[in-house]
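User: Structure please.
Assistant: Input sequence and predicted structure:
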Amino acid sequence: SRCVEVRSRSKHVWTMADGYRDFIAGTVGGFSGKLVDYPFDTVKVLLQTQNSLGSQTQQKSPKHTKIKQPPVYRGAIHCLKHTIKTNGVLSLYKGLPAPLLGSMAENSVLFLSYGEVKRRLGEKPGEKELSIFELACSGAVAGGIASFFLNPFEVIKVQMQVMNSSNAVRKYNGLIDCVIQTVQKEGVVKGLYRGQISLLYREIPGNFCWYGVYESVCFSQIPEGGTKRDLGTSTHLLGGASAGVAYWTAFYPADTVGSQIRANPLYANRGFVSVFLDILRAEGWAGLYRGWGITALRAAPAHALIFAMYEKTMDLFRRFDPKMKDSIDKRSGSISHSS
């Protein structure tokens, strides 16, 4: 899910109403995108973790556990078909409530953080606008802050998703049971914040590219003397699709490492660099980028839908609130990201 902060042509003062509009519009877009995105996210996680799930019951030290094993899935299509045949279509949505709640939490924190970072960089609506680079940097900082709110949801999401694997032990009866067992066995910090460093490495460069690419596409399409309101749905779709692919391409290996750390208890106490090097030595760069293709493929339509639905929702707000008609600057539309 994503929120968008609008900068005004005049000296517009930010109010709680602005936050509610952005939050609701971002939630509508994020919810729509997540429904398209989530089944493929499940496939991505299964591809990333397939070579480690079979060793979860082993008692060997992680340092002596080989990661490279015969692959369970031949590719994304085989993984998708196998999962549906084995567990049914609805299994692709297993764990969905966690990322939905995570998207809401992340978007609210991103909106507040992103706005504050921009203000500290000197942005004054109607007077001083930030450059694309400054906006991208603002997004990177906001993404780093929001990652601390998002990680617990990522942990639970991955734990629920990997139960679709034929190698995984079905140890949770549902979302709540997963949370309770994780906290009881590992505690809040070690359990719910497993893979936090990996998430930071994903969110910081990812949000830098996410903001930067979307803003660049939109700004490049604004007609001379026009505003962002002059842009059509096709531009929002193009900008969103480009931003989604850029976000996941920025440093995809961080997501692979994070999935391994969150899914396999053998790696729970391993550091990011240690797991990264293990995967690199055993499987090469192909192992670190396993699942990237389907991730980029699903990111394009999902993120395009997020932006299109956001814009449509904001249009509805403008119809019922005349004061918003003059609230968009010629270079408006700064976006905040969610996974």
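The two ends are 7 Å apart (CA to CA).
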